[in-house]
Amino acid sequence: MFRLNGMKARIAGAMLALAALLIVSLMSFQYMLAQALYTETENKLTVVSRKEETLTESRITAAYDKLRAASLLVSGDKREAMSFIRQRRIAGFQYFGVVSVNGSLIYGESLPKMDLSLLQDTFRGNNRIQFMKTGAMLEDQQSVLLSVPLWDGNTVAGAVYGVLSGKEMTSLFIDSASEDGGISFCSSRDYDMIWPTDQQTAESQAAAFFYSGANKSLLDELYKKLYYKGYGVERFDCDGEKYYIASVSLENMDGWYLNYVVSAAYVGKTLEKLRLAALAAYFLLSLLLFAAFAIIGWSFWKNQQQIMRLAYVDDLTGMAKGTRMNKDWETLCGGQRRLLALLDFDDFSTMNSIMGYSYCNELLQHVAELFQSAVFPNDKEMAYRIRADRFALCICNTPDSMSRQKKLIMRVHQD
Fold it and tell me: What are φ and ψ of residue 195, in 5° steps?
């Protein structure tokens, strides 16, 4: 019994250790899940930003192609160029013109503030797009200056330029509003920005707040990612709400980035199912693991019980065996004097052969009942079947113990 209690304690300890392990693993799982969700968010937003960046680059390339087509016509037939322009195949440019390398206007309109230094890189044979702050080109608004080389054989003879402003400029960089409520805008390392003209949302206010330098460490971290990787994602707070900003570098505009800002609540909705599914899978796995350990523990305890029963309990009579008496002797005595009585049958083997095993088994079972009825378990008295035909009685050594033994023997003889 005492060994069984110790086994139960060990099994209970193992189950508590398992529960502690599951709690620690749950905390670790929560941390890893948070990291995985942040990585998933970063990847998702980077994909969106990359998609926007690809569209922006393609629109800039298309604008270059318009100017390049015009340059081919201008360098050939000016009448054909006039027809090309009238057909508005380069519509959208507020100003359009062709200038030679010495600054002479070949065709079109002069820039409001002509500065040949703006075209020096184009005179070297490169396409160029430049952001112009309010007042730098147009007095009342921002604009961008696009220019492509005007080739004369293998020599640059001048530059073809076009100026975009207002919605035409914005649509060059920013696509229509996204369905998830996010906002796209362009920014430079000098904190210049190109905003959607028709979008005044919480996301746009959050984006303006982020680039205001209110949290300069996050802004520096984003710029560091853009410098080393060409893209970056940061999470920030604005007016008690959380937002994500994803940025990618624009290949055609050095020092400019395309940004995408979206509420963390929306991102959370898209990832909530993934998080819940992962947590459900973890809890299910934990329950299965706990159940498996419980079954293993129960089976182990059951097997131990069976083994101990085989070792200490007689199957025929249900009495304790002699091996149990040897184990219990010191415990039963407990410093007190005990009386041990032994009873066996003479010629039991002969009786077995004559009367048969069934009769003798019933006889042994009846004797076992008499012995067990003669002890007081509360006083730690025990009855044992030591071997096939021998029984033992361990009782307290009291004044009436001898009379109790005699009564038991008489009952055995009488029955």
Answer: -105, 155
Determine contact, residues 328/382, Cβ cutoff 8 Å.
yes
Contacts of 267 (CB under 8 A, 6+ apart): 41, 44, 45, 244
Closest CA to 226 of 173, 188, 272: 188
Query: Which is more confident, 249 or 334?
Result: 249
pLDDT surpassing 70 at residue 198: no
Collapse the DSSP code of 184 into the 3-class scheme (helix H, G, I; strand E, B; otherwise coil) and give the result. strand
Q: What per-residue confidence (pLDDT) applies to 310?
A: 79
> Could you give the CA distance from residue 253 to residue 262 in angstroms, rounded to a whole number?
24
Model confidence at 145: pLDDT above 90: yes
By C-alpha distance, which of 68, 83, 78, 185 is closest to 122? Answer: 68
213: left (phi over 0), alpha (psi -120 to 50) or beta: left
Give the Cα-Cα-Cα angle 111, 112, 118 (nearest 5 degrees): 50
Residues 177 and 48: their CA atoms lie apart, in Å, by 13
Whole-structure pTM value: 0.54
**What tens digit of pLDDT does each residue of 326-352 get?**
777 666 655 566 777 787 877 888 888
Packing angle of the helix pair 348-355, 357-373 (nearest 10 deg): 130
Query: SS3 of 122, please?
Result: helix
How many residues does the structure list for the chain? 415
pLDDT at 76: 59
Contact in structure between 201 and 224 (CB atoms under 8 Å): no
The structure tokens 């893209």 sit at 231
Do 4 and 308 meet the contact criterion of CB atoms below 8 Å apart?
A: yes
Phi, psi of 261 (to 5 degrees): -115, 130
Three-state secondary structure call for residue 260:
strand
**How do residues 301-330 score in pLDDT, each as one tens digit?**
777 777 777 778 888 888 888 777 777 766
Measured distance CA(134)–CA(113) in Å, rounded: 12
Candidates 204, 236, 240; CA nearest to 220 is 236
**E-strand spans in 57-116?**
95-100, 105-108
Please state, in angstroms and as integers, the Cα–Cα distance from residue 306 to each residue in 292, 301, 395, following that order. 21, 9, 27
Residue 382: both structure tokens together: 């025990």
The 3-state DSSP class for residue 300 equals helix
Locate 96 and state its tokens: 């359009």
126: left (phi over 0), alpha (psi -120 to 50) or beta: beta
Question: Helix, strand, coil proportions of the chain in percent (round to 5)?
Answer: 55, 20, 25
DSSP code, position 117: G
